[in-house]
């Protein structure tokens, strides 16, 4: 992604009139966090109607969840 969402990764899917997005972060040093190695961490997901856009507030909410996740040590990880 780019701009304020730089460093985030997004997976996309579409079902009927809905577009689904999953927002992820890359843990390059996952082994130090109890993961098996570098890992992709799913932080949150959202959906929107086709041909609409998420708002700046939506993206700010995603970033806030990422900041909360990264602030925790040990990290909150479900496997």
Structure explained in plain terms:
This protein is α+β, with helices and mostly antiparallel strands. It is 20% helix and 35% strand. It contains 1 helix and 3 strands, in the order E-E-E-H. A 3-stranded antiparallel beta sheet has the order 1-2-3, covered by helices on one side. Strand 1 (9-15) and strand 2 form a beta hairpin. It is elongated and about 40 Å long. The two termini are 25 Å apart.
Keywords:
79 residues, alpha+beta, 1 helix, 20% helix, three-stranded antiparallel sheet, single chain
How do you describe this structure in short?
The protein is of the alpha+beta class and 79 residues long. It has one helix at 56-71, and strands spanning 9-15, 18-27, 39-49. A hairpin with a 2-residue loop joins strand 1 (9-15) and strand 2 (18-27).
- Per the principal axes of the C-alpha atoms, what is the gross shape? elongated
State the end-to-end CA separation: 25 Å
Largest β sheet strand count, sense and barrel closure: 3 strands, antiparallel
- Strand fraction equals 35-45%
SSE series: EEEH
Query: Order of strands across the biggest sheet?
Result: 1-2-3
Number of strands: 3
Average pLDDT rating:
91
Q: In percent, how helical is the residue content?
A: 10-25%
Note the total helix count: 1
Structural class: alpha+beta
Low-confidence stretches: none
**Compute the gyration radius: what is it?**
14 Å
